[in-house]
Model the fold of this input.
Amino acid sequence: MSFKTTVVQAYFIQAFFEYALVYIFFIVICVMSFKNLVFGTAGIPISTPDHNTINGIKHVHDLKLSGMELEFVHGVTVSSEKAPLVKKVSLENDVLLTCHGSYYINLNSTADKTSDSIGRVLSCARRAEEAGAFSMTFHAGFYLADSPQTTFANIKKQFESITKELAHSSNKITIRPETTGKATQFGSIEELLLLCSQLDNVLPCIDFSHLHARSNGKVNSYEEFRAVLEQSEKALGKEFLKNLHCHVSGIEYTNKGERKHLVLAESDFKYKELLRALKDMGCAGLVICESPNIEEDALLLKKTFENL
Done:
């Protein structure tokens, strides 16, 4: 056997093991599941004394809630130096962390803007994972002048690039495109289920209030909520319903879709019907409340769910 042959064989053996490790890495992540459905806040609770991320996590625990979303919507707000402490405090207080990525993302844009968007996704995902978040969500993009089919293909290509980059750096966070509240935005439940079924380590973040607004007042009954969950289960398997990261809030909308978030009591959103559907389908994971009074409505959701 020549030296050249040995080198070639060694290269292919190394490539095989690298591929196998990445594959196992994704399998472990994709079967992640929770035992119960729990509730948390979108960001630091309003009532937190000395308002900062560490105190916010502790206050979530004191409120007897179970999760908090790191709001990186206008930029990464946790430093690399502080991220390990955020993770440590969340584990000590049994608080699950998720992350909402930048608002300034469009994976269906010009080359320069798309590249910038990918950079924002990656920077948020890296810091969120360092801080202990298990999941990161963001709005993936806009149709602009493109057809839904072209937009889907473009966005899928960018997700492939993002997940490949994260896998090679052993980043364990699950990337979750969010269902969006306006028809001009990519992110119907059908689009996201199809997208996620074709990608590794990508799952939808279902914002049920956005679905309600996007449909101009539909998706607001037990039957409709259950149909969304059954559709999701069919596309992504039963394990998806045990690994939820979803959003709920009151919402105001027009015939063009979402206008703004509201307190649940001021909205026509039938959250009790949603919670019953989630319970009957045996769902587990984390429900993040995005109402303006975040912890008050999060506690309302928790109490209502537990009393069903």
Notes: The domain at 34-306 is CATH 3.20.20.150 (TIM Barrel).
